[in-house]
Amino acid sequence: MTQDVLIEIGLEELPARFIDDAEAQFLDRTIKWLDEQRISYASAVSFSTPRRLTVLIEEAAESQASIEEEAKGPALKIAKDEQDNWTKAAEGFTRGQGKTTDDIYIKEVKGTSYIYVKKYIEGKSVQSLLPEFKDIIESITFGKNMRWANETLRYARPIRWLTALYGNEVIPFEIAHVKTSNFTYGHRFLSGKLTIDEPKQYEQLLKDNYVIADAKKREDKIVKQLEALQEKNEFQIPVDKDLLNEVRNLVEYPTAFVGSFSTSFLALPNEVLITSMAEHQRYFPVERNGELLPKFVGVRNGDDYELETVIRGNEKVLRARLADAEFFFEEDKKLSIDFFQEKLTRVVFQEKLGTYSEKVNRVKTIAKHLAEELSLKELKEVERAAEISKFDLMTNMVNEFTELQGVMGEKYAAYFGEAKEVSQAIREHYLPKQSHGELPVTTVGAVLSIADKIDTIAGCISVGLIPSGSQDPYGLRRQATGILRILKDQNWDVTIESVIEYTLSVLKDAGLTINTSSKDDLLAFFVSRAEYLMREENIEADIIHAVVDNQLGIFHVAVEKAHVLAAKKADDHFKTSQEALVRVLNLENKVEDTDHKVNPSLFQTESEKVLYESVEAVKSTYAEYLEAQKSEEALRLLAGLADDIHAFFDHNMIMDDNEEVRKNRLSIIRELSVLILQYADLRKIAWKQHA
């Protein structure tokens, strides 16, 4: 006979951003535990609201599956003595398995005989095992764990109740002085304490008491309500997926409503209005034909009782925020960019890296250098955008609405008469804001974004602020990923190595102390981010290492080479060429005298002469292909040497007894290796046709 199992953790309201991950952890660890304990079940589902995390296991077996297990003991030569008697080692092994030496049998493994016993493990009752759920609950981690009151348990919020049922029986355990029961709670204000008679009634019981336990069903309910409001009011509600996800995790029983604000606030930039509504109040903005309306849509945690009162309260809160924004906006416009720039001299960016003003000066130098290297015509705009890139951080508006950094910089710069390219670059230099976020679209914005990010990354890593594990307070991984994505998006022919080297020189010239390992640390850091991006393009790890380990170089070219090699890896027709090129690289480390020049007069065979002449013939064209970033053609040129390479190896003793001949042949190997390694280290690829 089977039974349903229900485990619910009742909590003080969880932060919305913690809920989805915690629910997933709870379900995943439950399923893992069931599998490890050999407990069969029909299904396992999870639920979550701001006040609860729940798993429901349907049709769990009454007992674990019993198993017969083979236990391996010591080698036979240890298990028996010279008189063919069982040793203490054999006796200790069997005793530990609950068996005797009479149960021993012998099996051979890789030429060695071992003793074995078979043991039968009777499955325990599931009811006796279920209190172990205490460990699962305590193992759930959150974005921030805290210790509450005098409890030793660190959790996101205090546990207020624990529901644990096996059928209609309570599973006994206790966490943080909270004992399990068959009680749960409905909506905080619209219901109260509820008794659960059996696990299957859980979801419907809560729904009857104004709690929709399934997060997806809450989301669907919100979406349907938004659609109904759109149709009724003939406006559009642009639904941001992240905001919708957050709102569904803020309520247990959603009811959407429409509020309004004074049309005078529409004079504020749209970004200010949307930030005030979405980021600060979790409201959805409202549009008609692409234009913002003086309205908003909120979602109440409850039913529609006294909804008009709720609407008026929300309107009052938003009105106050918009009034503040309006005041800040008008006050900021009375000042000047120079005023805000001067304030930057007194604000520290990072203790070891100086003030924001000092950072801006470094960014300006890096941005100018990068623009010159790329021969950009917008040099003047790049310098000006870099110079004023951080002024808006000192404005009243950004001080109050930090999410608007860059956005207000663009608005204010345009207001104060800066060129459009300069104003737009101030906003764009913060892009991408997430690893896969929007990239700068203007050249000036892209240059400034790279310069700002590389200054932060190089500065932080140089003073020892290297990300570890999940800790990355300065967002260095995101920023490095952003740099690589921008370089690839813009198809810019600049190497990561040169950007790193120049940035470190700027930091050093600014009087900052640079660790001796900074260059290597930075390159390794960027290589790791390049690997991350290339894996996302389904490029296999061995190909990535072949391309980037020796030199990361120009990133978009590295990606192109990787794709070319990926195609060749699966191409049987490339086998002969690959074998020849790898054959050359395998002897590369035998070259001792790297300055030795090939001397044609020392050739003793025709194959030496042919290979040397073939290599010399392709050098200039190969270099042109690499310069023109024709990766397919460059590899094809190398592959064309395959027959000559094989003939060279087949008809010559490379490590000849004659030192001069040996050096000469190794010099041919060295010259060819240099060409191949300019493309990739093909030795690192697990060529499929060799399997």
UniProtKB/TrEMBL annotation:
Belongs to the class-II aminoacyl-tRNA synthetase family. It catalyses: tRNA(Gly) + glycine + ATP = glycyl-tRNA(Gly) + AMP + diphosphate. Transmembrane segments: none annotated. Residues 578-673 form the DALR anticodon binding domain. It is found in: Cytoplasm. This is Glycine--tRNA ligase beta subunit. Its EC number is 6.1.1.14. It is an enzyme of class 6 (ligase). Tetramer of two alpha and two beta subunits. PANTHER family: GLYCINE--TRNA LIGASE, CHLOROPLASTIC_MITOCHONDRIAL 2, GLYCYL-TRNA SYNTHETASE. InterPro entries: DALR_anticod-bd, Gly-tRNA-synth_bsu, Gly-tRNA-synth_heterodimer. The gene is glyS. It comes from Oceanobacillus neutriphilus.
